[in-house]
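Example record

One chain of 150 residues, shown exactly as stored in the release files.
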Amino acid sequence: MNQSFLQAVIDASNNPPEGNCIFDSSDHIRYQNGIDVSGHNYNCHRRFLIEKNISNDEGYTISMFNLDGRHPIWKNNIQMAPKRMRIVSTKNNLIEFRGYGYDEDAVEMGVPKELASFANYGILLKINNLDIEQLILNMYHKNVSIVYLK
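Predicted structure tokens for this chain:
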């Protein structure tokens, strides 16, 4: 893991240096409307990639990959397409990212702007001793939170 990049995240910089950090998860719990609807999903391997905004704009690009294999239709392991996000708050060892802008490709294909908005997504990182311990993916438009654990 690129320590200077992670330090920029910890420092709440929305203009990080080149680089990235990775969080690998082997378990997650899904919450719908604040209620646990899945229990633990052990041996369900996901990788989050947090990198400098790939559009060379402010903030970050965050993507998620399925490490258990390829999707049968899409033929790749992308679980969540890249989302533009920026840090919106920090408190103690928690760092909150919130999406901004739109998926222009989706809008071009006719998806309504409110559904193509990256603001529908957010990430909350729990960091301890320069290590990401937990990541929560929030899908605000669905009232869903997924807690990813190591």
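Notes: The beta strands are 20-25, 27-32, 35-36, 46-52, 60-66, 78-91, 94-99, 121-128, 131-139, 144-149.
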